[in-house]
Amino acid sequence: MKTILHKAATRGHADHGWLNTYHTFSFASYFNPERVHFGALRVLNDDKVAPSEGFGMHPHQNMEVISIPLKGYLRHGDSIENSSVITPGTIQVMSTGTGIYHSEYNDSATEPLEFLQIWVFPKKENTKPKYDNFDIRHAVKRNELSLIVSPDGNAPASILQDAWFSIGKLDKGVKKTYDMHREDTGVYVFVIEGQANVSGTVLSRRDGMGIYDTNSVAIEALEDSEILLIEVPMV
After folding, report:
1. Domains, the chain, ranges and CATH?
2. DSSP secondary structure string, 57-100?
3. What is the mean pLDDT of the chain?
4. 7, 94, 169, 193 - which has most CB atoms within 10 Å?
5. Residue 58 burial (CB < 10 Å; 0-12/13-18/19+)?
6. Integer CA distances (angstroms), 40 to 25, 151, 161, in order
């Protein structure tokens, strides 16, 4: 087993007033040559957006973009005429392919918005852009590692990559084993809330760790915790 540890305090950070953002991997003005990507996982941004503020229309191309609201209301608009508002319990998936413009705003005038934005390199480039929202509430089971994104239709959402996203909402003391789907993948474990022992390493709130060259990962919740697992090809 090989691991790459990213403590929360070591992430890139920018506070623009309307946006307080942390970057696990190199992004915008933050560049660390040792933290450009983990396999096909390119971006993991932890964003807090002020009321009624947000990202205006901007382009994406050849990237799978997954947005996971943690608190508040995320409003999306794009150049292929989609418009929607999502909240925790729903995720947004966008295949940007040949190119798409989109915007993301806090739809509340009073409450901050918190969400994770994740980019994954696609398996095939220059596909037709598409966008959709997926309700994951029925899929996420307490004290299980619940699959929410997969490449093959056995999860609420799918992306154009051999990647699997799971969420664990675990009570203190619960132990689970995560089994890899393929031999050439690695899993990035990100603690959204709480604290967990992940294969011998204690991860606290917003810590992340990439794990590869293993068939499974042991997880024990040291507190009531919410954990995101992103399994991606390493090549």
Report:
1. 11-135 (2.60.120.10), 145-233 (2.60.120.10)
2. EEEE-S-EEEEEEEES-EEEEETTS-EEEE-TTEEEEEE-TT-E
3. 96
4. 94
5. exposed
6. 12, 14, 9
Nearest to 118 by CA among 49, 196, 47, 168: 47
Using the predicted structure, report yes or no on whether residue 83 has a pLDDT greater than 90.
no
Q: Give yes or no for a contact between 227 and 191, defined as CB atoms under 8 angstroms apart.
A: yes
As a whole number of angstroms, the distance between CA 81 and CA 102 comes to 10
104 close to 18: Cβ distance less than 8 angstroms: no
What's the rounded Cα separation, in Å, for the pair 116 and 29? 18
Phi then psi for 9, rounded to 5 degrees? -70, -10
Closest CA to 170 of 149, 189, 151: 189
Please state the φ and ψ torsions of residue 8, each to the nearest 5 degrees: -55, -40
Cβ 219 vs Cβ 227: under 8 Å: yes
Give the pLDDT confidence of 33-44 residue by residue, as tens digits.
999 999 999 999
**Token code pair at residue 18:** 């309307």
How far apart are alpha carbons 155 and 229 in whole angstroms? 14
Closest CA to 205 of 114, 84, 74: 114
